[in-house]
């Protein structure tokens, strides 16, 4: 029996290949608490790298299979997340004890209000943690089903295909890159967290302003 760590991209890809991409991306795209612990960017990019072969080594995965599984997992996961939100998403979020889930839900609600449904659903796909809770929040907030389906499909396909193809392009350009998956995953983690920095800065500024108002009130 193969021991597989679902939070380890290399382990998932080695054990299940493109099918592992479909299952993990499906869960990461909308299964709320479960999705928070699964790789997204850090699975798609290495999967693309493993699709690139060389004169010395054939591709370890088929590019068309990974692209198809990534797109299906992203879109289907988003739809299931929306249905979860429509049928009890608010109650589920209220019961969670995870501060990280609650903060992500608040960010998702602000994103939908600030940018509108279409733009928010596309932008949110590229933000770790946020994309897992964005689709259930859209359902809970009553985003029209047709609008949601169109724009989450656009965002899901754009996000998944871009990352896989980026990994494939880099893997085809740099010899033996597939032998360095762990450092590559670490780099993708760092890059994927960059979109969260403005939000973290804004949250710190708001906390500081609240403290200042509270101190001035005394």
Automatic annotation (TrEMBL):
Check the UniProt entry and state the signal peptide residues, or none.
none
Q: Which UniProt keywords apply?
A: Cell membrane, Membrane, Transmembrane, Transmembrane helix
Question: Record's InterPro entries?
Answer: DedA-like, VTT_dom
| Transmembrane domains' residue ranges | 12-38, 62-85, 156-174, 180-198
Keyword Membrane attributed: yes
Where does the record say this protein resides? Cell membrane
This protein's membrane topology, according to the annotation, is: Multi-pass membrane protein
Q: Where is the VTT domain?
A: 38-168
As for family, the record states: Belongs to the DedA family.
Name of this protein: DedA family protein
Q: Which organism is it from?
A: Streptomyces bangladeshensis
